[in-house]
Amino acid sequence: MDSSKARRTLVVSGVPDALPPSRMADKLVIHFQRSKNLGGDVQHVQYPTNLKGVAFVTFDGIQDAERVLKVDHVLEDKEFPDVFLFFRAEVDLSMFGDLNGLIQELKDSHRSVRFSLLMSKRAAVVEGPFKAMKKLREDLITRMQSTGYRSRESGAGRCVVSVVGGLQEDSTWVDTNVFKYIWKFQHRKLDRCFQKYAVEIETQKQGDLTQIILSGTEHSLIMSARSELEQLVATWMSDLRTQKIDYGSLDRHQRERLLGFCKDASLQHPDVLFVSMETCIEVVGPSASSYNFCKEVEGMMCDTNKQPSKNAYLS
Q1: pTM of the shown model
Q2: How many CA atoms lie within 13 A of 164 on its CB side?
Q3: For 241-285, how does the pLDDT look when each residue is reduced to its tens digit (9 = 90+)?
Q4: Maximum Cα interatomic distance, the chain, rounded to a whole number of Å
Q5: Where do the DSSP E strands lie in 60-122?
Q6: Do 315 and 246 form a contact (C-beta atoms < 8 A)?
Q7: What domains appear along the chain, each with residue ranges and CATH number?
């Protein structure tokens, strides 16, 4: 290591191993860039190292490293959600027109989120802390609703339209996983809502978002049902988290075993929903429950393999 880099690099000891290495590295970056910690721009974090509980943090400038040393640093438990709730997702943008313009607007509005446009798929890969990603999702839902986008399959739009038989319909967009969770754990509440306003629903999944189409004979009742549904979704969105257990590299037998472990874990965590996807299992529930569910399943896999699992992990 050259002398300049050595002067810009700090040795951080006592790093907890409660999170995957990549997430802990993200946490260290967040911690040492915070102004309250007298931080500065972090150039690189080396973690894990060959020393247990030790990380090397390299700053852009020598003055940043020297300033950080003026205070004591403690990685408090309450800060952990900033890291293990750091998300990466692919977002379908096919319902929007000018993607380059849209991405630039989103970058300006959501500066803590990283965007990578996938023009060939009319989509984008987005990465960022949970709170920032949540605001981005809400922004996209609002933009989608304001465009009056119509589902290619149903032809249903955001505005109320007349259909055969004198019925009217309206639609709204909600988070797919949140709606799945509500459908499982709050199904009776949904039924009461729809029965009270005499409406029927149809769903059209569009990736991470689901379009809920409500139909009935009276416009005012449809609007009331939609409002109540959106309020219910908003309440649960603030409480629910989605974790992922990757199984893309597992064979059929290993996947079946993993699903069995998930069923066992669900007995201990009855407020958690797990859904088998193509390359992963999505785990939806309150923050602590969903995280503990994944750690418990990961531990079962490790115990079965008699070694730390390299195939199933939190992402």
Answers
A1: 0.53
A2: 0
A3: 888 888 888 888 999 999 999 999 999 999 999 999 888 899 999
A4: 80
A5: 86-92, 114-118
A6: yes
A7: 3-83 (3.30.70.330), 86-147 (3.30.1370), 148-238 (3.30.1370.10), 240-305 (3.30.70.270)
